[in-house]
Amino acid sequence: MAAFLSPFFAPFLVCLLGLTLDRLLGEPRRLHPLAGFGALASALERLLNGAPQKAWRSLILGTLALCSLVLPLLLLTIWLSAVLSGFWLLLVQATALYFALSLRGLAEHGLAVAQPLQRGELNVAREQVSRIVSRQASALDQQGVAAAATESMLENGADAVFASLFWFLVGGIPGVIVHRAVNTLDAMWGYRNPQFLYFGRAAARLDDVMGWLPARLTALTYTLLGNRKLAWRCWRQQASQWDSPNAGPVMAAGAGALNVQLGGPSPYPQGVKQRPHLGGTNPASADTVQAAIALVRHGTWLWLAVIFAISGLVAAVAGL
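== Cobalamin biosynthesis protein CobD ==
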């Protein structure tokens, strides 16, 4: 027990506690820090990006907005990490990880789509899937709704679960908080439209950089836990066809692991977007949404097991 409570196992304990808090409490319904951060980001964007700008000016203002929002968080979390120690440091780390994680929320959003689909309530499923994807849900058939939800589970598993764990392990409180802030800004500003094409570019590129390795570790996780041969082939052959450098490996490996066909033409308010097909040949269904949720959950347990094993190995080597 004393060895288990040594500093070498602190990262594992923080991850376990953060995931436990997420499992017990779920996403805060009110006063979520990310909601406040998002509101501040929206206000700053309206202030700096309210009128048409030249490309270079919009790029500079977007970079300034990114730095204004992220740098204070970085400095604050570095200070917290420096002044706290022992139990209080562990508690604050676990709380920060809890706010960044969304494993239970991901599952709840996915099941809110899968369960109506199983009951044949397509309109209810469309309404629920519109909460988690930007597609025109009213134009989706049953398979389209299931595919959209499955894609969301796989991609958000990378962003809201595995990347948060990765950046906590790499950078502690500053790492996990800065990544979540940048990922939020990319979700808000990372659109390729006249309003955000240049203003959101710095946030989008920084999110790509911070998500590069976690995305590939997520793809590896999906590959190990699913149809390994197909997942590996889809990852190698299909990932580069996707327009996102990080979503491509995650989606391709996840679709292959589940042996489900994702991608293809998708309706958006501005028109139908032709996307490459990913994965196998089986059509998406309510079962594939639930299988995607299970894949993310099992991947989380695998990460915990690996973190525990590495902690034990480091402790053993240090004790020699």
